[in-house]
Model the fold of this input.
Amino acid sequence: MYVFITILIVIAAILLTLLVLVQNSKGGGLAAGFASGNQVMGAPKTADFLEKATWTLIALIVVFSIAAVGFGKGQEEARDDQSVIQVEQSAPAAEVPAAEVPAEGAE
Done:
């Protein structure tokens, strides 16, 4: 599950990078070439969609990152439990002799 969430984080990061590149910035950005086409086709709210999509991807990356940490700790604990079980099975505990108690009266 950890690997799957990591893949989702990478995909979201790539999409976020592409969205940021397309957005209209002070210099015009890649969205400047599409601005006139959007007004003709009746989609003047493209900037709002891009902004909402950016914030959504940011939120997804945060949620996926927190989930990855949780699943990573779960896998680590599972590995620790397995190693303890393997140690117990492979090396039985040696019998420890009882401590010798001096007899009463013998000093």
